[in-house]
Write a structure and sequence with these properties.
The protein is mostly beta strands and about 140 residues long. It has two helices and eight strands. It has a domain of about 80 residues: Immunoglobulin-like, CATH 2.60.40. A hairpin with a 2-residue loop joins strand 7 and strand 8. Keywords: Stress response.
Length: about 140
Amino acid sequence: MLEKLWPFGRSRVRKAVEEALEKAFQDVGEVLEPLSELSEHEDHYLLRVEVPGLGPENLEVRLEGDQLVIEGEKREEKRTKHLSEIIYGRVYRAYLLPKDAKKEGITARLAKGVLEVKIPREKHPPEPPVRIPVEEA
């Protein structure tokens, strides 16, 4: 029935309603978690993080123990707006480094709104699984 009333289909309507509700109830100053992907290569990991609208001057990448932290802030410019769908605020995400990641030699590069963090890997022989005996009670 809903498809007949709305030509874009039920899933698009549901998505639009969910996005509108999220925006309506969003707290001011909320922390935004950027979307990301981590790919594994033979000698490194590549973490790609979407940070549109942020430049190197308002973006920080740092190590805190075994975590790689990405933090920044997307600030709203003061001007008269007729439409505002862009979300502003603090961007923060912490990633637990894989066990074989090297903390030395990590590099970060920002291009076209995507931050790429290259994390070198250490070569370790694979550890054999450890069997744990199960006792009967």
